[in-house]
Design brief:
The complex is a heterotetramer, with 2 copies of chain A and 2 copies of chain B.
Chain A: E1 4-6, H1 12-23, H2 25-35, H3 40-55, H4 62-77, H5 81-96, E2 101-103, H6 104-122, H7 132-147, H8 152-169, H9 193-213
Antiparallel strand pairs in A: 1-2
Helix pairs in contact in A: 1-3, 1-9, 2-3, 2-9, 3-4, 4-5, 5-6, 6-7, 7-8, 7-9, 8-9
Chain B: H1 11-22, E1 28-29, E2 35-37, E3 48-55, E4 66-67, E5 72-78, H2 84-94, E6 100-105, H3 108-123, E7 128-133, H4 153-166, H5 171-183, E8 185-193, E9 211-214, E10 225-228, H6 232-243, E11 254-261, H7 267-283, E12 287-294, E13 303-312, H8 314-321, E14 324-326, E15 330-331
Helix pairs in contact in B: 2-3, 4-5, 6-7
Classes of the chains: A mainly alpha, B alpha/beta.
The structure holds adenosine-5'-diphosphate (2 copies) and magnesium ion (4 copies).
One magnesium ion binds next to loops of chain D.
């Protein structure tokens, strides 16, 4: 089992992201429907599908693929998801610059950059019932596992579990930003849509990287 | 859901094509299918006026493109902010060399996308300044005015900004007038039934039959109170009770009034409401100098109404009276 | 039923009061609370133009009172003909000494009340001549044209008659032009959901969810077919299939198009429909010289749409282009 | 038991008509709702109530009272009911001109005049599922009973029954005029609203006259 993957050859990870979002279109919209306006799956699927059409063949290297996804979201999608996920993916891509291998060090930095990017553009805080509530604990768990000396593959596994726990923790939160925030206490009791899509994205990345490492 | 569309994912595209075919004298296409402009835009040496927002609010936003109003508009999916690229391309379509005023509503998506687009424009040396409408009184407390949403008051802000630009004012002057306009404007909505985004296929919120939601937002954002439907006179009083003290509007004020249906409320009912609004406004010693009643800013097929009031000084009065010609608002 | 009214039995009174307060420059009261007139009416030496009909179709009918349009209007209860007295008083309000053209729609109640009112007027030596609009193609077969209802085509008839009177034409000339206008006009409606008269409190007809009713009338009168909702393009084609062969409209015809929402259909959807209508009309070699899209003739909060087409000769073209200023229709 | 009533003193009959229509507002609208637009009771009640306000005190003689009702309907009510019932009542009043007593002869003529008035203004035929389908058989039955030598009071009884039968016969009819006619075959199976209000009117007149005669 490897402990890193080739950045140049891993653009396919973005294809996997696109697929997972498209597959979960209805589910994500349904979750958004409970306390939002029911279009999260529609929005995400539209943006990711558009990006899919722009990737081209052969699939470009991972940073280029991430940037194509980011630009498509920012330029063509609009809404909140365009800028938020757009920044998330371009921030990740920035960390790959000058690197050849994606290993635990680099991946940890990607998560940090993603978190900062989303916070910068969206000005939300952890606990506000947003995708940050998946991203932030996932990033922390990864850091801790990596610092404690676990292997990259195992750290990804830890992160996936933390992302899921983070996502599920949004059930008990009251939304502070976005449409759902208008509901106040009534927003408690259901998943946050963005936290759910973010969990799908992180888990798909983890799974894709692990597979490429032969884990 | 019994509605008129082809593929619901492309309802905005289809509608924009229809608008372009219907109004070639008022609307022109740009290279970006999500950006429309006045045929005369960009107009040399005039400050460009731009807005943008989600679709489903027609005639807002594209219906206010026209002489004396907006130069270009960025068009989003239904109830969803246009992309940063659309805003950016609208800035370019509107820029006559004296900068662009982007006058838009306070929604998270719009804020983010406008911010990104303005950054991008700055890189090419195009100056974009913004005014963010926050006229919706129930959406946040008075101390938290910066959190309030923008609703139908945006139309009056566009009218003021558009007229000011037409007068030859520079960007800072246009921005100052538009900011003054929205600072003097207060709105409130009452929702009576929900609406359905065609691609979603079912209402994304619910109002119990026989109930109304006071302070509802333009996308069904929850209001401040849900209660049994009141007679029109009490609805009018309730709306005025929320907005009059907030500015406050007072005796001897000159005001502009905009009563807009949310889409599915019969127009005659807006006049039933206005009958009472006019009575109170007159009794309070205010003078209505500009009045707009109709479906000016809608939310698909929602039932309900918004009331918007602006306190006028002589400048705002003059700018509201200036000629304008757009699909949604014409002054001769 | 979540609607805006006080006592539902007096919703018309309340709305009329609101209209009068809102538009003192366009509408004036008369001694009869169910009759409104242009402030300038009766205008000496101009043929008076009158219509009337049930309420709930706003901006029809009162919204088309104005310069170059109607001089006076008789106002009925919701979906119910005005009284003979209201028609009669409208005739008097409109009479400038050259007689009155009463241009109204083909409904039993209106026919009876206009007949009684005209008899009454004749007793005082006031000449009233009538044109009865019957543009609604699906409401009766071609051989039975005199049984067809009048729908949104009435607006174009008023525009033509109003402009002709403004030109100084005499009563027979005005009647001839209005008759020519409606003879050259065909309409069809598609209903998507029902509507509720406030005093009744529940819908008086029903359209199954997911279905549409082709040929529905302005009060929910049953159409010629109920079928699952079709995509907008097919709706457009179906509408054209009914009305194009009926006149017929043919290659090289100049036409006027009016696409009206029935009240609760989002305006953007009218443009989605128009996108296809324009495509076919152009492909068939016709030229659209006048176009109106919006809520011009509604049925409370019904969802659906009507399409009206008029074949133009040079006279009709000129009269449609003439200036007019009313709440519902303005031409400069 | 008398065989006629004083026309001068019977204006109260119109008050009774007004009352019965007001009492049956909801029922008449409900019947109209099945195949019409559900406003027949609202319309009738509005018009009759308005007339009630104009009758004044003391109640004027019957012809004047009928004319006030007629004029109110024609002038103020509108719709179809204004002209149709307006003509019906003024036609009845015309037959009372120059008379002092309302007896079987006069009442028979009133029914004929009413029938002609409604037909003239409305151009409908018997069998079209309208108020004519109450009025016409009622008038015929009265004529026959009167010709066969029955007393006025008994003839009124016969007429009331015939009105009811006429009204009920509209259930099996297909509407040929008015809003319901748009339904074609679908209009079969329910009462006609106008036939129902007409039956109430005729029966109330019959009952009022009989009471005044001491029957
Ligand atoms: N300021 C923000 N920062 C981070 N995430 C946000 C912010 N605002 C909204 N979100 C996320 O966006 C999700 C909703 O996305 P979506 O439904 O696509 O957009 P919209 O709310 O415009 O319909 C929420 O579930 C939340 O996780
Ligand atoms: N031409 C006519 N002649 C006689 N009666 C008619 C005619 N048209 C309609 N009616 C009667 O009118 C009744 C409906 O009255 P109403 O509901 O008050 O008016 P509308 O149909 O305008 O809503 C029908 O039930 C029918 O009996
Ligand atoms: Mg959403
Ligand atoms: Mg949304
Ligand atoms: Mg009716
Ligand atoms: Mg009826």
């Amino acid at each position: 089992m490897l402990s890193s993957i080739s950045i140049k050859d891993s653009g396919g990870l973005v294809v996997e992201l696109i697929d997972v979002i498209r597959e979960n279109r209805a589910w994500l919209s349904k979750i958004d429907g409970a306390i939002g306006d029911g279009d999260h799956g529609i929005n995400m699927s539209k943006g990711f599908t558009l990006a899919g059409g722009k990737l081209g063949e052969p699939i470009p290297p991972l940073p280029d693929a991430l940037n194509i996804l980011s630009e498509t979201l920012i330029e063509d999608l609009g809404g909140s998801m365009g800028p938020l996920y757009g920044y998330l993916f371009s921030s990740m891509a920035d960390e790959l610059e000058g690197q050849e291998k994606l290993d635990g060090d680099v991946f940890g930095k990607m998560l940090h950059a993603a978190l900062e990017g989303v916070q910068e553009i969206g000005s939300a805080n952890v606990g506000d019932k947003t995708l940050l509530d998946t991203l932030s604990p996932a990033s922390e768990a990864f850091d801790e596992a990596w610092r404690s000396g676990k292997g990259f593959a195992e750290c990804l596994e830890v992160m996936s579990l933390a992302a899921e726990k983070g996502r599920d923790a949004t059930i008990d939160m009251v939304a502070k930003v976005g449409r759902a925030s208008r509901l106040g206490e009534r927003s408690r009791g259901v998943l946050d849509a963005g936290a759910t899509s973010c969990c799908l994205i992180l888990q798909t990345l983890a799974k894709g990287i692990r597979q490429r490492m032969g884990a | 859901m019994n509605r008129i569309f082809n593929n619901p994912d492309f309802i905005v595209e289809d509608a924009v094509r229809g608008y372009l075919k219907a109004h070639p004298d008022i609307l022109a296409a740009t290279d970006n299918p999500r950006v429309l402009r006045r045929p005369a835009a960009p107009q040399k040496d005039k400050v460009g006026i731009v807005t943008g927002g989600g679709s489903g609010h027609e005639p807002a936003f594209l219906g206010y493109v026209g002489n004396g109003m907006l130069d270009a508009v960025a068009i989003g999916e239904i109830f969803s902010s246009p992309s940063a690229k659309a805003f950016h391309d609208a800035f370019i379509a509107a820029d006559g060399g004296r900068g662009v005023a982007c006058l838009y509503g306070n929604y998270a998506g719009d804020n983010m996308n406008v911010k990104l687009a303005a950054k991008q424009a700055a890189k090419h040396g195009l100056t974009v300044k913004t005014v963010v409408a926050n006229d919706d009184v129930p959406s946040a407390s008075k101390d938290d005015r910066s959190k309030r949403r923008g609703v139908a008051g945006e139309i009056l802000m566009w009218k003021v900004g558009g007229a000011r630009a037409e007068e030859g004012a520079d960007l800072d002057e246009v921005i100052a007038s538009a900011q003054k306009a929205i600072d003097a404007t207060r709105s409130i909505g009452i929702g009576l039934s929900a609406c359905t985004i065609p691609a979603v296929g079912k209402p994304n919120f619910h109002i119990e039959d026989g109930h109304m939601e006071v302070g509802i937002g333009h996308h069904g954002e929850p209001g401040v109170a849900v209660m049994p439907v009141k007679p029109a006179r009490e609805m009018a009083d309730l709306m005025l009770d929320h907005i009059l003290p907030d500015l406050p509007f007072e005796k001897d004020d000159d005001v502009a009034i905009l009563v807009s249906g949310l889409g599915a409320t019969p127009v005659m009912e807006l006049y039933v409401l206005y009958d009472r609004l006019a009575e109170v406004i007159e009794a309070r010693g205010m003078k209505t100098r500009h009045l707009f009643i109709g479906n000016y800013f809608t939310s698909l097929e929602m039932q309900g109404v918004t009331l918007t009031m602006m306190r006028l000084d002589s400048e705002l009065d003059r700018l509201l009276a200036a000629p304008a010609h757009s699909i949604g608002l014409t002054r001769v």
